[in-house]
Amino acid sequence: MGVILSYKQGTSFLHRCPAWIKILVIPAVSIAAFYLPPAFALSILALQTLVSFVLRFTVREQLADLRPVIYYAVLLFIAKLIGSAAVVISGGSFYWKDFIISEKETWLLLLKLFCVMQSASLVFKTSTSLQIREGLEKIEIAITRKKKAPVAQTLSIFICFIPQVSKNWQQATRAWKARGGKKSLKMLVVLLPVFFSVGMKQAYNSARAISIRQ
Fold first, then answer.
1. Are 22 and 183 in contact (CB under 8 A)?
2. Which of 23, 72, 126, 179 has the fewest CB atoms within 10 Å around its CB?
3. If you compute the radius of gyration of the chain from its CA atoms, what whole number of angstroms results?
4. 150-205: per-residue pLDDT in tens?
5. 3-state helix, strand, coil in the chain (%, to 5)
6. Which of 36, 34, 29 is closest to 119 using CA atoms?
């Protein structure tokens, strides 16, 4: 799987669209999906997926960005199945049909979360870190009527650090496997300290760069 929420170079209409418009419009659509009927969320998810394919984002790339929600969904249903198993052990009954129907609210929540992640994917995959930062600064300056945008700068560091964290972990695991290592508890023990150290150093360098720029 690829790096989560990583930029993919292109010349599509969405790549050329100003970042501040994408930051305002695309997340707003996802927020609307939480409050409007489920049919709207389903339609938006289908449209987002269609747009992703039009922009030539592969299934693998789309699944990489949806991975956090997929993991959450798996853990959620495992927990619920364990609860159902406890009911059966205590003498109750369990039917798959009733289980699926009873989890309607969970399915709807996951549908909306998928919409949010697809929106984030479209923004990140069609905007560089610099474009996102400039877009946030433009929005803040338009609201505050000031020449500087300190909140936008801080927020952009936090937002743009998400794909960087994923990239760091991918590089660490690739290096581990290249040296003959396997996925195990030992891999986590060895890589996590390095992972956090690299992340902290990058965060420090970014903060320094911004303070010098100001």
1. no
2. 179
3. 21
4. 777 777 776 767 666 767 767 777 787 788 878 777 777 777 777 677 767 766 67
5. 80, 0, 20
6. 29
